[in-house]
Amino acid sequence: MFKVTMRYLLAVSALVLFCSSVHADDGLAAPADAPTSVPRDESKTQPATADAALKQAESAYEYGDMPLLVESARFVTDGTLEATTDEQAAALRFLGIGLYVTGRVEGARTAFEKLLQLRPNTYLDPATTRPEIVTFFFDLRRRRIRELRAADQANRPNVLWNFVPPMGQFNNGDRVKGWILLVGEAVTLATAATTYAVVKTWQRPNKTVCEGVCPERTDTANTLRSVNITAGAAFIALYAYGVIDGLISRNKVRSEEELLRASPPPVSVSLLPNGAALNFRF
After folding, report:
1. Which helix (H) or strand (E) is 178 found in, with range?
2. Cis peptide bond prior to 166, omega within 30° of 0
3. Roughly how many angstroms between the first and final C-alpha of the chain, as a whole number?
4. CA dist., res. 82 & res. 87, Å (int)
5. Which residues, listed in sequence order, are joined to residue 66 by a DSSP beta bridge?
6. Cα distances (Å, whole numbers) of residue 231 to 120, 121, 185, 222, 237
7. Please, are residues 156 and 169 in contact by the beta-carbon 8 Å criterion?
8. Distances in Å between the alpha carbon of 184 and those of 109, 165, 237, 282?
9. Of 87, 100, 173, whose CA–CA distance to 139 is shortest?
10. What is the dihedral angle through the alpha carbons of 145, 149, 151, 154, rounded to the nearest 10 degrees?
11. Which end of the chain is less packed: N or C, by CB atoms within 10 Å?
């Protein structure tokens, strides 16, 4: 009986010790130097290319991580990464949005103004952009339109330049019409001058063309005279049209698209202290 009781007590004691050791293992804390799973801070990693930076910014935008959005965009806008004009524009758009959302309104204003200078026809999509940011951006765009319109009116050259076609067309922003007039006037003037010079060299003091010496040139000379008259008339007609059209178009109000796309005219005249200079831009 005593042996059975002792065996029973030993078995119970062993069972209690086993359960205690299991619970003790479950409650052990990890060592201080044990590795932990900490997410990598993407904002500290510089992308290798502008395209990678924009993809990182786009991902941050989709997940609402505005600090990462701003930092990713700045890799491009600050010139840290070499970027194309399109990539610069995309980065400025992301930067403006991120700065506005994080309360840095003046920084957003600067970014959006640079974006409008780089890509004047940029729009923010209301379907993917917060309404207050779209309103803020369009207010900036409207203000830029007003500034460009005021500058356009103030910087228009003197009305007398309209009498030097096609300067009036270029100054008014009618570039296609200006190039057509420039080429047409150049061709007709050159034709009129060349035919006149040829006939003049063949002409004798008595106004005849090689009379009795080279009669075979008489028909050619008559043809050249006809070409000369036609070319001269065409030049006068183009000149008159250029002057009238330039005066009519001078005071027209340009559309927003025309103002935003405006750039220095391809042909311009600069007044210098000792004369004038004709400038061409291609």
Report:
1. helix 175-202
2. yes
3. 117
4. 9
5. none
6. 43, 43, 9, 14, 10
7. no
8. 46, 11, 10, 18
9. 100
10. -170
11. C
- Say whether pTM exceeds 0.85: no
Give residue-wise pLDDT tens across range 127-160.
888 889 999 998 888 888 887 777 766 666 677 7
Give 152's Cβ-side CA count (13 Å radius): 23
State how far the Cα of 95 lies from the Cα of 68, in Å rounded to an integer.
Answer: 10
**Tens digit of each residue's pLDDT (9 = 90 or more) over 43-66:** 456 888 889 999 999 999 888 899
Write down the residue that tokens 């049209």 correspond to: 241
H or E stretch covering 280: strand 275-280
Minimal CA–CA distance to 268: which of 153, 156, 149, 186? 156
